[in-house]
Amino acid sequence: MKRRVLIGSAAAAALARGAKAQEAFPARPVTMVVAFPPGGQADVVARPVAAALERIWRVAVPIVNRGGAAGAIGNAYAARATPDGYTLLMALSSMALLPEAARVNGREPTYAPEMLTPIALFSADPTVLVVPASSPIRTLEQFIADVKARPGQVSYSSAGNYSALHVPMAQLSQAAGLDMLHVPFQGGGPALTALLGGQVQCLASGPGPIAPHIRSGALRPLATWGRTRLAGFEDVPTLIEKGFPDCEFYIWVGLFAPTGTPAPVIARIRDASRQAAQDAEFRRAMAASGNTLDHRDGEAFLRFYNEDAARLVRVVRALGKIE
């Protein structure tokens, strides 16, 4: 009897310690993984979110960039992390399509989307087609005519095969009957650097990373993949209005935790994310970077995520295997 009482007391003490630890979250730094090198869309959003969370939680929220394989390496790392809330992933929309891309190419996916739990969406912007300002191409019509006149010679950079910068360009190529040269890099930052350095002729990017270069006069926007014209780019036509109704694509950036993270911890992270979205400094940073704030959480984010994931999987299957 005494032994049972001791065991019971030990179990109760362990539960109490667990509850206390849960209530104290976060009691130490929370790592935010970005599955791309610095400078891309996910990184541009992650940094002000992390800074806002640091102000809210009063603990460090370091960014860890784990680029490679169009984001699959970092996504898999976060998906397999201990589900305790201390490793989070700031993911791009490509997170949902990469496992399907692996299957299309006869490979075993390194993670499954179900291994990551959606917490909060922070932005969802259509991609923007840009060329260097030094280019003689000034309109979408001129761009299409130029590509058709030089099949296989006009190149574009991306964050890797099936990435959020590759899929929209492949979508446009299919819709307009274009033969373009795809040059994959390991992230949106290097892809943008390649365009600015003259290594490629065009790029489809989220508005955040390219906005400063458009303002500086280094890049020229030709079209967007949105259903409606993008705020801040009101003079840039959509591909839909230019006669390509199937060319609709969004780069969204959202926060995820490894599936299995305790519900109370998820709730705390979601609540802090909601506060971060209202943080004045965060909002200023988002506006300065050219990203449109689109905060959704709970069921609203889950519904958006599921609908977009289904659309992206269809695009990957249409692309098929890439040699």
From TrEMBL:
<keyword id="KW-0732">Signal</keyword>
<protein>
    <submittedName>
        <fullName>Tripartite tricarboxylate transporter substrate binding protein</fullName>
    </submittedName>
</protein>
<dbReference type="InterPro" id="IPR042100">
    <property type="entry name" value="Bug_dom1"/>
</dbReference>
<dbReference type="Pfam" id="PF03401">
    <property type="entry name" value="TctC"/>
</dbReference>
<feature type="signal peptide">
    <location>
        <begin position="1"/>
        <end position="21"/>
    </location>
</feature>
<dbReference type="InterPro" id="IPR005064">
    <property type="entry name" value="BUG"/>
</dbReference>
<comment type="similarity">
    <text>Belongs to the UPF0065 (bug) family.</text>
</comment>
